[in-house]
């Protein structure tokens, strides 16, 4: 067996998707949040499962106007899962299933971990036609349901015929206020999910908070690498500068 084959197979054997469907974040001293780092391989595997859910929906609505023909990636959170989904839903679609047109909509509800705007902030509008279409909204997380509810109203007012939602993870509050149509897993409400696209962003926004509450640079390094599970090379590269200017 080649070294390449060994590396690939070791990665595949190490994935336990059942654990990642209901994971819990780790507690950090003097922080009200728990933190959950999502490895790249888990994001890819979760997206594949989500793609299969959408494939089944498309097949069950064959020839109907309820089939999805537009997908809106919510920036920034929805971009990474959307790029992975594009490969499955467009290139991997079944025969007689319409091609989904992917576009973007920019909206933000969070300034940083645990810091919400009073109202969703629209950064840019819908980039593709949605009038009369069945539209799929794609995001990485449904937290309290406010963003999804806002987007559904906004897109409906733009003429969409039907709106469906997809998120990798949802939380209990969101399930009550804005249930997700296609979802991979659920986390507790106090969990801050760190996806592959926001590892540095979380460092920038959380290390200063820890420092202000008395954590040394060494303690921050311990929390990030030993407790949360950050790759050491990312922490060693960014932490000294972030901590210095915090």
Descriptive account of the structure:
This protein has 246 residues and is α/β, with parallel strands linked by helices. It folds into 2 domains: 39-189, 3-Layer(aba) Sandwich (Rossmann fold); 195-246. 43% of the residues lie in helices and 25% in strands. The protein has helices at residues 3-13, 17-21, 40-60, 79-91, 146-157, 172-177, 199-212, 217-228, 232-244; strands spanning 26-27, 34-37, 70-75, 101-112, 115-124, 134-142, 162-170, 182-186, 191-194. The strands form 2 sheets. The protein has a 6-stranded mixed β-sheet with strand order 5-4-3-6-7-8, sandwiched between helices. Helix 6 (172-177) links the parallel strand 7 (162-170) and strand 8 (182-186). The radius of gyration is 19 Å and the shape is globular. The chain starts with a helix and ends with a helix. 35% of the residues are buried.
């Amino acid at each position: 067996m080649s070294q390449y084959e060994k590396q690939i197979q070791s990665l595949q054997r190490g994935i336990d998707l059942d654990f990642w469907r209901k994971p819990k974040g780790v507690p950090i001293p003097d922080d009200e949040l728990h933190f959950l780092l999502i490895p790249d391989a888990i994001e890819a595997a979760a997206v594949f499962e989500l793609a299969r859910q959408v494939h089944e929906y498309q097949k069950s609505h064959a020839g109907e106007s309820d089939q999805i023909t537009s997908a809106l990636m919510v920036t920034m959170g929805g971009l990474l899962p959307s790029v992975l989904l594009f490969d499955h839903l467009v290139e991997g679609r079944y025969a007689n299933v319409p091609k989904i047109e992917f576009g973007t909509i920019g909206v933000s509800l969070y300034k940083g971990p645990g810091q919400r705007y009073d109202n969703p902030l629209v950064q840019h509008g819908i980039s593709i036609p949605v009038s009369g279409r069945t539209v799929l909204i794609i995001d990485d997380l449904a937290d309290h349901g406010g963003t999804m509810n806002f987007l559904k109203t906004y897109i409906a007012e733009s003429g969409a015929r039907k709106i469906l939602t997809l998120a990798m993870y949802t939380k209990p509050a969101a399930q009550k206020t804005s249930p997700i149509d296609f979802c991979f897993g659920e986390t507790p409400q106090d969990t801050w999910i760190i996806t592959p696209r926001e590892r540095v962003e979380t460092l920038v926004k959380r290390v200063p908070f820890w420092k202000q509450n008395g954590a040394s640079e060494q303690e921050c390094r311990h929390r990030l690498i030993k407790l949360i599970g950050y790759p050491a090379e990312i922490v060693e590269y960014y932490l000294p500068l972030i901590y210095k200017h915090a």
